[in-house]
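BUG: 3D viewer hangs when loading the predicted structure for this chain

Environment: internal workstation, default settings.
Expected: structure renders.
Actual: progress bar stalls at 90%.

Input used:
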Amino acid sequence: MLVATMVGALIGYGLDKLFGTEPWLLVLFLLFGGAAGCLNVYRAAMLAQQDEEENDPDEDDGDKTSNDDHPQSNRKL
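Structure tokens produced before the viewer hung:
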């Protein structure tokens, strides 16, 4: 998230210097970079959640198996 924000700020700063519009393009591209960073974090979280759901061994998929195969089912309390 930080990298996208910094890239946006640098692009905005450079365009402001080029066109003499300080600080408007810096602010605009800083916001665009922050939004892109948030979108990247959201996508990564959704991908991690998807991977976790696919690899979850405790997920009930309709099999009626006993808990004898589960490593914690034989624990003594």
